[in-house]
Design goal:
Radius of gyration of chain B: 26 Å
Radius of gyration of chain A: 17 Å
Order of helices and strands of chain A: HHHH
Shape of chain B: elongated
Structural class of chain A: mainly alpha
Number of strands of chain B: 4
Largest sheet of chain A: none
Strand content of chain A: under 5%
Strand order of the largest sheet of chain B: 1-4-3-2
Oligomer: heterodimer
Structural class of chain B: alpha+beta
Largest sheet of chain B: 4 strands, mixed
Helix content of chain A: over 70%
Number of strands of chain A: 0
């Protein structure tokens, strides 16, 4: 598998896992601390999306270096690659957020 | 003997890792499955708490006004207008409770002595900070009879 595609899959799953893992464990924490778990999960998933993206991109300094290289040395391919990486991370984080929303939706369906 | 000790440690360590992993996985699955139910119970508790405090205050104020024969304010209704899904149910109940609290002292007072304009100013353009979120209230309509009805639009401030 090309390294770029592998990187995309990694980025997507890391961002997805950060949002999902953080939300579910925040939910467990909310149950222990006597707070509404799903509300906590949804609030946290919404606010953590940007951080999940940053975590997925990981070594952000190298991203900036690639963008700089692209801008000043005319290597536009690296800029596009970085943009696709960032977009995949955003997509992964949003998928995690919508998965938490899906839990809420399923709860509503079973309640009625 | 040393071999047996090594085997026991190996088994115990693997068992411990499995138990912790299983525990975390089970907790995650249970959390995902029961979270909605717990949330609805929290909503019910909040709503019931609001009702109790409202009834308490109402009773207190009506007891004071029991001998007056004029038209007195008997209850307060707050209708919160929000964009769909913008404000969740628990936040909505808490906002309602905070707003009602501000008007609760008026119960039992003569309706003629109340000024509708001043009543609307109490919450109009007011910013409420609840659960690390900020909400802006705008009064859209107010009806003052035996029941004080207020329609307020709620917006989340980012």
């Amino acid at each position: 598998m090309p390294q770029f595609i592998a990187g995309l899959i990694n980025n997507f799953l890391i961002a997805f896992g950060v949002v999902l893992g953080a939300s579910i464990f925040a939910g467990i924490g909310a149950i222990i601390t006597d707070h509404p778990p799903l509300k906590t999960m949804l609030d946290l998933a919404g606010s953590i999306k940007l951080w999940a993206m940053a975590v997925a991109l990981g070594d952000t300094f190298s991203s900036f270096a690639a963008i700089e290289k692209g801008l000043f040395e005319g290597e536009f391919r690296s800029i596009i690659k970085q943009a696709v990486m960032v977009l995949t991370a955003i997509f992964g984080a949003n998928t995690g957020y919508y998965f938490i929303k899906l839990i809420h939706r399923c709860g509503e369906l079973w309640q009625s | 003997m040393a071999k047996l000790k090594k085997a026991i440690i190996k088994f115990a360590l693997t068992f411990l890792t499995g138990a912790i992993s299983g525990g975390l996985l089970a907790a995650s699955v249970i959390c995902a499955l029961v979270s909605y139910k717990i949330d609805t119970l929290y909503e019910k508790i909040t709503a019931l708490k609001n009702t109790i405090s409202e009834r308490d205050a109402k009773l207190r104020n009506l007891e004071k006004a029991i001998n007056s024969r004029t038209l007195v304010l008997k209850s307060i209704e707050i209708i919160l207008l929000t964009d769909q899904n913008a404000v969740d149910e628990i936040d909505r109940l808490e906002i309602e409770s905070v707003v009602k609290e501000k008007y609760m002292s008026l119960i039992g007072q003569e309706v003629q002595k109340l000024d509708a304009e001043i009543l609307s100013i109490i919450i109009d353009n007011r910013i409420l900070k609840l659960n690390d979120k900020e909400f802006m209230l705008h009064v859209e309509k107010l009806v003052l009879t035996e029941v004080l009805k207020i329609w307020a639009r709620v917006k989340i401030i980012d």
